[in-house]
Design brief:
This protein is α+β, with helices and mostly antiparallel strands. The protein has helices spanning 33-36, 40-53, 70-88, 93-98; strands spanning 4-10, 13-21, 26-28, 31-32, 59-66. The chain has a single domain (4-98), classed as Ribosomal Protein S5, domain 2, CATH 3.30.230.10. Helix content is 34%, strand content 23%. A hairpin with a 2-residue loop joins strand 1 and strand 2.
Length: 128
């Protein structure tokens, strides 16, 4: 079986996902999944597409992630895995779409404006 290459994005994070037939081994940036993502909720996010499509331990994932934080990277990886599973079998798409895993989350950080403390927060008002 050939390797399926897809891309996932979330906030500032980008994940390149390489899916191939295997035993369920997930490698992120050359490290084991449990070594790279240390918390259970983050690992749950990554395993969601496999749980929904009932393909746990059928495919190996090699991924490279860059940018953003751990949560953004995990969600980018989830989108990349979902897209790869759809390329592999189009019958997976309705189930993944129903759970909202096929949609790229477009929310980005709003830029800071001049004359403000942050994007929307104003400086403290002083009456005197």
């Amino acid at each position: 079986m050939e390797v399926i290459n897809t891309l996932g994005r979330r906030k500032a994070a980008v994940a390149r996902v390489f899916l191939s037939k295997g035993t369920g081994k997930i490698t992120v940036n050359g490290r084991e999944l449990n070594e790279y993502f240390t918390t259970d909720p983050i690992r749950f996010i990554i395993h969601q597409p496999f749980t929904i499509t009932e393909t746990i331990e059928k495919y190996d994932i090699k991924a490279t992630v860059a940018g953003g934080g751990f949560k953004g990277q995990a969600e980018a990886l989830r989108l990349g895995i979902s897209r790869a599973l759809v390329v592999l079998d189009a019958n997976n798409k309705p189930a993944l779409r129903k759970e909202g895993l096929m949609t790229r989350d477009p929310r980005e950080v709003e830029r800071k404006k001049f004359g403000r403390a942050k994007a929307r927060k104003r400086f403290q008002f002083s009456k005197r």
